[in-house]
Specification:
Layout: E1 13-19, H1 30-46, E2 50-56, E3 60-66, H2 74-86, E4 107-110, H3 114-130, H4 145-150
Antiparallel strand pairs: 1-3, 1-4, 2-3
Helix pairs in contact: 1-2
InterPro entries: RAYT_transposase, Transposase_17, Transposase_17_sf
Protein name: Transposase
GO molecular function, one term: sequence-specific DNA binding
Length: 172
């Protein structure tokens, strides 16, 4: 039994990692990335949050959310997103009735300060390069990187060299 405890802070900013069941390349199909976006938008309408940054890779995703003041319930939001998405993609049904689309749990990390935020933002945007999918973050289509370039947070050529602030991070 795990003794992992989630830290729920109303209005908090969180980094998340979600992984597909058995690391299946579920998001290698463009239509499934779009279905994930639809699921996220649908839940945001019912239970608002701000999607600060995100990257979707073939077998996992990372993102940063900011929750509304007075609201700390990211777990219900993820359950709703995973459930909605799972209804629209094929998957085997386990004996307990659960569909095998996602790993049962997800990783969360409360962002503690500006340095922590920047490290996790860099981690998200460098992830497609880290996994060898592209040579630079700007080449990956399913990422918020270009939005951050547009607002001046990154130069367009950022990530050609591995950023030193993510060397010791592993949220896979």
């Amino acid at each position: 039994m795990s003794d992992y405890r989630r830290l729920y802070v109303p209005g908090g900013t969180y980094f998340f990692t979600l992984v597909t069941y058995e690391r299946n390349n579920l998001f290698a199909d463009e239509s499934r990335v779009e279905k994930l976006r639809q699921s996220l938008r649908g839940v945001k309408k019912k239970r608002p949050f701000v999607m600060v940054a995100a990257v979707v890779l073939p077998d996992h995703l990372h993102c940063i959310w900011r929750l509304p003041e007075g609201d700390a319930d990211f777990s219900t939001r993820w359950q709703m997103i995973k459930t909605d998405f799972s209804r629209h993609v094929p998957g085997k049904i386990r004996k307990d009735g659960a569909k095998t689309v996602w790993q049962p749990r997800f990783y969360d990390h409360l962002i503690r300060d500006e340095d922590d935020f920047r490290r996790h933002l860099d981690y998200i945007h460098y992830n497609p390069v880290k996994h060898g999918y592209v040579a630079t973050p700007g080449e990956w289509p399913h990422s918020s990187f270009k939005r951050f370039v547009a607002i001046g947070w990154y130069p367009n050529d950022w990530g050609i060299i591995a950023p030193p602030d993510v060397d010791d991070m592993d949220h896979e």
